[in-house]
Write a structure and sequence with these properties.
single chain; mainly alpha; DNA polymerase, domain 1; 3-stranded antiparallel sheet; 9 strands; elongated; Integrase_catalytic; Site-specific integrase; DNA_brk_join_enz
């Protein structure tokens, strides 16, 4: 009992297994008492010299940590590989927001066959990972991949390491102090981003084959995110087709590959009601009428797929499965393969049509479907101050932003071809005010 008061003991000795070998092959070991196992005697061996054994006893043993009033972790607990610990952590992970996408993203990093984390760290003993190695890996990853990819992989890696620390597998967190690559400066992003013009947006809509023209039109007319558009159901559209309720998103479960609905939008402000202009409301009404007739014929042939509540059917239907790598099916068109109880997958739409649509509108390859949201926000911001225009607060609410700062910083774009030289000329355009004469030099 006295040892419990004074703490664990440690001493060195020559290994009995090598004592009969030549001196060059003899080894030393440290015999110590494990405070986590009722002071059971344990052995740390393999030291080439007596000095090495003494150094470990005086710096790393439980007795040394006790004298320094520091925590001690059994080195044997760090023998588990990083992959083993990562999969154990993933089994306990739950997203704070309840979003399935959060788990799927971590699962892709932990379980993905081509994951940057798994391929580099999966086989490593977790107790051997050092701060220097983590810093070098992140620097190399940032040099070959985008900053967002490097951050995503590092954040999952750090969560696993912290789980190991909290569960006593390792003593120190090697990710502490590692500089995470930041996001690109917003001004740089704005300078590189190409926003479609009104004429180009009209071309995109006109060249999109039915029934997906409404998908492109709603993106430009409402600024909704792709995952919000794909999740729209008939119950989310008002009877007059002049309002849309945003209540959920459609995400891909990366562990199963299936599309699932989540009633947890991106932010709390993402739950919103969006008013549609008369032209978009008319287009949506025509779309729903046409699809209703097609859906009636399809469900007549597939009665087992009709849901109990028809209002749960998607506004924009998807297509049936087809083999990956086959750009076109052998029979029929995409319209012939519509599945009216399945929502459109944004990834399928962009893979199938976006490249040709960009070309038809003379847009560069850097323009993404998501830039239609930028187009919508930029157009609304540019209208501020004009009759009938929305205020910046109303624009932020329409886009589902938590604050107006996000709207102005990320979605208001400067027009390089606009004459900014006379932006203040109106303040001098008062009666009896004339321009000063230019004196001859």
């Amino acid at each position: 009992m006295a040892r419990r008061k004074t703490g664990p003991r440690a001493w060195i000795r020559e290994s009995y297994r090598t004592k009969n070998l030549p001196s060059s092959k003899r080894r030393w070991e440290v015999l110590y008492e494990d405070p986590h196992q009722a002071f059971k005697k344990r052995t740390k061996g393999g030291f080439r010299t007596k000095g090495d054994a003494e150094r470990w006893r005086d710096e790393e043993s439980p007795a040394a940590k006790h004298s320094q009033r520091l925590a001690w972790v059994d080195p044997a607990r760090g023998d588990a590989t990083f992959q083993t610990v990562a999969e154990e952590w993933l089994g306990t992970y739950t997203s704070a927001s309840g979003k399935k996408a959060g788990y799927s993203q971590h699962a892709q990093v932990v379980l993905g066959s081509r994951s940057l984390v798994r391929t580099h760290w999966g086989h490593r003993r977790i107790g051997d990972i050092t701060h220097r190695e983590v810093t070098a890996w992140l620097k190399e990853t940032t040099a070959t991949r985008s900053p967002s990819t490097a951050r995503k992989n590092f954040y999952t890696f750090r969560r696993v390491i912290r789980y190991a620390v909290q569960n006593g597998l390792i003593l120190r967190d090697p990710t502490v102090g590692v500089a995470v690559p930041g996001q690109r400066d917003l001004s740089t992003q704005q300078a590189e981003r190409v926003i479609p013009t009104v004429e180009q947006v009209h071309l995109l809509i006109a060249n999109t084959p039915e029934p997906w023209g409404i998908y492109v039109r709603l993106a430009a007319a409402t600024g909704m995110r792709p995952e919000e558009l794909c999740a729209l159901q008939l119950r989310d559209v008002s009877a007059a087709c002049d309002q849309i309720l945003v209540r959920r998103v459609l995400v891909k479960d990366r562990t199963t590959g299936e599309s699932i609905y989540e009633d947890v939008p991106k932010t709390r402000r993402s739950r919103r009601t969006i008013d549609l202009d008369d032209f978009t409301a008319d287009a949506l009404r025509v779309h729903l009428t046409t699809q209703q007739a097609r859906a009636a014929r399809w469900f007549a042939a597939h009665p087992d797929r009709l849901p109990a509540d028809p209002s749960l059917l998607p506004v924009v239907p998807g297509v049936g499965e087809f083999k990956r790598g086959a750009k076109q099916r052998k029979t029929g068109t995409d319209v012939d393969w519509l599945v009216f109880n399945r929502p459109l997958r944004h990834g399928w739409f962009t893979m199938r049509y976006w490249s040709s649509l960009r070309t038809s509108a003379s847009l560069p390859t850097s323009v993404r479907f998501y830039d239609l949201r930028h187009f919508h926000a930029s157009w609304l911001v540019e209208q501020i101050g004009r009759p009938g225009a929305l205020s910046i607060v109303e624009i932020a609410e329409r886009l589902g932003h938590a604050s107006t700062k996000m709207t102005l910083d990320r979605y208001s774009h400067s027009q390089p071809d606009r004459d900014k030289r006379n932006a203040t000329a109106a303040m001098w355009a008062a009666p009896n005010v004339t321009r000063l004469p230019v004196s001859a030099s």
